[in-house]
Every structure is written in C-alpha cells, then in structure tokens.
Amino acid sequence: MATCAARRALAVGSRWWSRSLTGARWPRPLCAAAGAGAFSPAATTTTRRHLSSRNRPEGKVLETVGVFEVPKQNGKYETGQLFLHSIFGYRGVVLFPWQARLYDRDVASAAPEKAENPAGHGSKEVKGKTHTYYQVLIDARDCPHISQRSQTEAVTFLANHDDSRALYAIPGLDYVSHEDILPYTSTDQVPIQHELFERFLLYDQTKAPPFVARETLRAWQEKNHPWLELSDVHRETTENIRVTVIPFYMGMREAQNSHVYWWRYCIRLENLDSDVVQLRERHWRIFSLSGTLETVRGRGVVGREPVLSKEQPAFQYSSHVSLQASSGHMWGTFRFERPDGSHFDVRIPPFSLESNKDEKTPPSGLHW
C-alpha cells in the first residue's frame, strides 16, 4: 500500500517506474510512453526521471499526462478524481465512494482465541472498522499491461435471461482502496479512455476536480446499488503474504424449482517480503445455511499460478460461488512454493455470504 515514506517499483507490462515520496515536492509531473501503460514521475520538480531507453517501447516518446497531487491522508476523493493505482500502475478515475467495514485479522492478532464459529472454522474475534473504497474506471490503454496481474473484467453481474448460470462483465470497472490511489491532475478534457467516461462524467473547468457526475452516473448508481455495493472487506496475513477478500451478493435465480443464490468474491494476494513465491494450490471450505459443507481443491486460481516477487508483488482476481441457501460462509488456504521447493499454507480469512433480505425482485443485469 502507498505511504509517504515508501519507495516502490510499479510495473505495467515489462516496464517500470519507481517513486520516492519521502520529502518530495508537490505537484510532480507524471509521464508516460505515448500509447503505452508506463509511467515515470519526476524525482523532483526540476529533475525528471524518465523510463530508460532499454525499457522504452521502440519508436515511443515520453509525454506528460498529468501532475501528481498530494495523496489525501484524511477525507475522501471526489467523483472525477484522476489517479494512478499504486499497486497495479494503471490510470483511472473515481466514480463514487463506498464506505466498507474492514475486518483486519492482523489487527486482531493479539486478541484471545474464541470458540469455533458456526462455519466450523476456528478464529479470533475481529471487529470491523470503517474504510473507504471507490468505484472506478480503468483506462483502456492500460488494460493490456495489467491483465496478467489483475483482471480487467472482474466486476460481473447476473445476465437478464433465464439461464441461471449466465454472467456478464463491464470491462474496466474496478474497486479501489483509498490508500491505492495516487491522485493527479490533467489538462486533457478526456484523460481516460473508457466507453463510459463521457457518458458518466462532464468536463467543468470551474470545478476541482474538473469532472462532475452526469445524471446518467447518479441514476446508474442508484438503480444498481444492491448489485454494486461493497460492504465488507476481510484481510489476513500469513508469512508475509496478505490475503484480502471482498464478497459481493449478485442476486437469486430460480433453477429446477429451487432458488440459487449467487456471490462474486474478489481476492488480492500481496507479497510483503522480498522473497519470490508462487501460488500452487487452493483449498476452499464452503458452508451453506442448508447444512452442507463442501470442500474444493485445485491447482492455482482462475487457471493461473501467479508468481509474487518484489517487482510484481500482487495478484488480483475474481471468482463466483452459488448456494441453494440464502447465506453461508467460506474460508480456506492457498499453498505457496518457495524457490527451494518448500511449501507453506496461507490462510484465507473466513467471510460470510449474505443475501439481501429485502430483495423484492432479482436483478436483471445493469440498468441504465
């Protein structure tokens, strides 16, 4: 996560930029190779640190795309705020905030052990605290450079027809934590390339930031609130591998005279150490309110076995689960391998699968 004392190399594809914010002057120029998702902030306001020629795409030149602002330690970013993702390095724009409850088991690590919870998973009592996340759009120019480390079609919805298993996604829609945002400004009236940018936002040079919500964005947020809402975030660290889980309720469908409830869960894996590790296996336990307990084992996640290193410390993906009950729990472990061939298990924090009790009608895709 970004802090003012941090120095971190950020990757976009095979290209890197580094930032050193200790004692930095603000604002600071933000540069990119034209047509590529690579960034290089200036070391100071007078001396620029550019991409090296060996990393610069052939035939490309660096162009200034904006100026960094001081990251907010308090308060929220407004709709229309441009930012660079501090972990995955993509350009984006804030649509609106979510106030989530963060259940951080690392903070609760000193708490006394409690009895096993109803899901059968021994755990410590964890109290949630309010934490700000944002619904954002990802610049389409950067999607190819982050696709190996973060899914750009991770926000999915139930389709609006009878197939209870049909899902669809809005490309370039993401959820971002407050500390992931490195804010910047731009003089470009359309600084983010996304098909929804001009549909949702209007340029107004009298405002700061100079992009304000159109009525279409407010209506879209209101109508789809139940299926977009981010409410709970769960986090736990094992042997310097931090796992963050965000579950989303997607709705209910009827299938073969029974109700099927769907959830999406987004997982981020972060290597907080300098040692290289690779994810090899997943092991899930899924408990349903109907009384069933399912065990799922498999190689990797979403068909991949990502390597987490100092240069590329994070991997993020989304997956889905369905139950024939209105609620349940999930927990488990990821098995990682070290360069010497040894293995270790990383805990996935237990999280609840809850449905909307006041749901009147099932969602029928996104409403516009």
TrEMBL record:
Keywords: DNA damage, DNA repair, Mitochondrion, Nucleus, Phosphoprotein, Transit peptide. SMART domains: YccV-like. InterPro entries: ApaG_domain, ApaG_sf, Hemimethylated_DNA-bd_dom, Hemimethylated_DNA-bd_sf. One of its GO terms (biological process) is positive regulation of mitotic cell cycle. GO terms for cellular component: mitochondrial nucleoid; nucleus. GO terms for molecular function: DNA binding. Pfam families: DUF525, YccV-like. Residues 235-360 form the ApaG domain. It is found in: Mitochondrion matrix; Nucleus. Interacts with PCNA and POLD2. Interacts with SSBP1. Interacts with PRIMPOL; leading to enhance DNA polymerase activity of PRIMPOL. Interacts with POLH. Interacts with POLD1; leading to stimulate DNA polymerase activity of POLD1. Involved in DNA damage tolerance by regulating translesion synthesis (TLS) of templates carrying DNA damage lesions such as 8oxoG and abasic sites. May act by stimulating activity of DNA polymerases involved in TLS, such as PRIMPOL and polymerase delta (POLD1). This is Polymerase delta-interacting protein 2. It comes from Mandrillus leucophaeus (Drill).
